[in-house]
Amino acid sequence: MMGDWDRRYRSGGLVRQISPNFTKALANYFGTGPTDVEASIEAHNKYVEALEENGLEVTILPGLENHPDCCFVEDAAVIVNGAAVICNLGHPSRRGEAESIAEALSQHLETIVMPKNAKLDGGDVVFYDDYFLIGRSTRTNTEGVDFIENVCHDRGFKTFVFDIPQSTLHLSTICSSPSPGVLVTAEGHLQPEQFDGLDAEIIWVPNEESYAANTIGFENGCVIISDGYPKTAELLSQHGFSVTSVDMEHIRCADGSLTCLRLFFK
């Protein structure tokens, strides 16, 4: 049975406010470390406005003082056709973030708990048509991949697994699906042959604009990208998308991207 998830029925979004201790957030990949909490809060507010302008009703959870990375809610759960898989996050400092996410999502969805030996960051899962693309990375182990694959298969979806280079944080850092049939990915991270067997139109973002490969698309043809990446904006426009951008400079400092800040459900 094919999965019945459909972007047209995505009506709800969940975000969490910036932690008052955001300057202590992890920055081990492309981030330089956040330095300005107030500016980060303002950037987050603009991000939420962009989601609302595209028709989403956004629930905002309070920030957690003891969890500097708590705004990156994508990592805490994976939504699979009416269920939320609550993740065992891969970095020790982030464990404990998922509890309040599970509580909030349980009002809308069935929740599924992972076994203790399975580690998974939701940022390593990208929804693409009737597939879930899954990255095995420094934050997601084989047990985590196996578990989320089984959940997806049980709910009618196919899966496709990528081995992510150690220099890359998550699959979603360098790959996203702004519309059915289309993937956006960054040159220099995944190789073209890794997509063999996956029927997709792939838009390759130049390596120097890798950060912009993380996009959020909507059913009306609009796509949000990070501000400051003109080559990516032009590529997406050439493929028929209506492109808007938000300033992600302060969020990027904590290794954060657009999709990291939200969970979508219907």
Automatic annotation (TrEMBL):
<dbReference type="GO" id="GO:0006525">
    <property type="term" value="P:arginine metabolic process"/>
</dbReference>
<dbReference type="InterPro" id="IPR033199">
    <property type="entry name" value="DDAH-like"/>
</dbReference>
<dbReference type="GO" id="GO:0000052">
    <property type="term" value="P:citrulline metabolic process"/>
</dbReference>
<feature type="active site" description="Nucleophile">
    <location>
        <position position="260"/>
    </location>
</feature>
<dbReference type="GO" id="GO:0016597">
    <property type="term" value="F:amino acid binding"/>
</dbReference>
<dbReference type="GO" id="GO:0016403">
    <property type="term" value="F:dimethylargininase activity"/>
</dbReference>
<protein>
    <submittedName>
        <fullName>Putative NG-dimethylarginine dimethylaminohydrolase</fullName>
        <ecNumber>3.5.3.18</ecNumber>
    </submittedName>
</protein>
<keyword id="KW-0378">Hydrolase</keyword>
<dbReference type="Pfam" id="PF19420">
    <property type="entry name" value="DDAH_eukar"/>
</dbReference>
<comment type="similarity">
    <text>Belongs to the DDAH family.</text>
</comment>
<feature type="active site" description="Proton donor">
    <location>
        <position position="170"/>
    </location>
</feature>
<dbReference type="GO" id="GO:0045429">
    <property type="term" value="P:positive regulation of nitric oxide biosynthetic process"/>
</dbReference>
